[in-house]
Amino acid sequence: MDLPLIRLAEVDSTQAFLRRNPHLGFCAVLADRQTEGRGRQGNRWESAAGAGLWLSAALPACAGVAPGMVLQRAMTAAAGVLDPEGRVLGLKWPNDLVAWRGGRLVKVGGILGEQVGGRLILGLGVNLRSAPDIPGRAFPPACLRDLGLAPPPIQSLAAQITKSWRDLEREFQPPFRWPEAGAPIRWEEGQGTCLGWEPDGRLKVATSAGLQRLSAGEVTGLGLDG
After folding, report:
1. Tell me: the pLDDT tens digits for 54-101?
2. Plot region of 13 (φ>0 → left; ψ -120 to 50 → alpha; else → beta)
3. DSSP assignment of 56-103, as one string?
4. How far apart are CA 42 and CA 211, in angstroms?
5. Is the pTM for the entire model greater than 0.85?
6. Do residues 49 and 25 lie in contact, with contact meaning Cβ atoms separated by under 8 Å?
7. Residue 214: beta bridge partners?
8. At what angle do helices 154-164 and 67-82 cross, to 10 degrees?
């Protein structure tokens, strides 16, 4: 059964809207513009009206699936809708939507998730037709249009993505992951060599202090070392 889809011209945040309205049950909300959208670790994520996809969905909680893995599967499923042939889009740990452009990794979107009662609320932001100008980012913003991708009309796109989220207990494989095993990486709290992505969504890293398994909430500023 497809989720009911609510479309709003403007909202502070689709994620906040669903948190404020638990009586709506399982549904999705799409906004033409967000005024207070947020990304991981409190980062703001905004664009002009009609330039991006701002979508949240309240779904039944995924029993037995680690929270970090739920987000990775949800982002990978969304990437399959945005890039059906799997030519361009991939996943940057822990759950960013990225692509290679001019030999550099660029960020196209991000996803958040939280469990509120018996509902899993996923919030997805994707730059479709333009990207905000944010200087100084290790992974600068980009949009699908710049990457040669032309998604369907936004309401159809939202419906397809929420449909792809109905079975997140199933494993999804992105066309590529960054960092891959062997990549030297650094973050604000340390540096090391990526050894791979763990089944629970953590990142396994070899550091001078020994083996570490990084969780999304404890890492900021992940980038390529050197």
Report:
1. 999 999 988 788 888 999 999 999 999 999 999 999 999 999 999 999
2. beta
3. EEEEE--TTS-HHHHHHHHHHHHHHHHSTT-SS-EEETTTEEEEEETT
4. 28
5. yes
6. no
7. 203
8. 140
